[in-house]
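Comment thread on ticket #2218

A.B. wrote:
> Attaching the input chain for the structure job we discussed in standup.
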Amino acid sequence: DKLHLKGFDLETMLAYSIAPTLPLVALGKPGEHLGAGRIQTTNEHWQEEILRLMQSARLILIIPSHRAGTLWEIATLQNGGFLDKTIFIMPPELHFHGGKFSEDWHKTVLAAGEAGVKFPEHIAAGAFFRLNPDGGFADYSPFVSEEFLKEFEPTGVDLHFVERYDRNTDGMDIADAINSLGVDGVDFGGGADGDR
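C.D. wrote:
> Ran it. Output below, let me know if you need it in another format.
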């Protein structure tokens, strides 16, 4: 399921925010969507592929859910010792599956708790957050999608922009929010002054 914020899907927003520093990679059919590069796999081998990606990744981004496959990924992140390089994404409040995202998030908090992972309750503005190695809440940074959305033309995404964000000191972008959580070996440079 794609999460859309004011017409932009979250995956594409993330891909543009962290490129060219890090590639965004996911499982799926190559070319099926703008955003993350895709690695094709089968239902029988997807867990092996995810584990391989987790082991080699410098940064892991995940939108938690209460679905069995995502809960397996979250348990694998904790049991494999990968939480130190993982940032969880809590999207802001939006309509999702005929309801509000916060309602779906509450189901996720409960399911993750049963697996020994403590997610925070939903924050209407959204957040990026990290967990301690034991699965407890560690830190968060606000989700700053408004700053990112200012980059795009009202008619759609300009796929040919080369310059990074001309940010000012009264706002952060997604890469700044991720940087603020301090994953070792990951730095998108700059900061709110626009130097990248």
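A.B. wrote:
> Thanks. Noting for the ticket: The mean pLDDT is 76.
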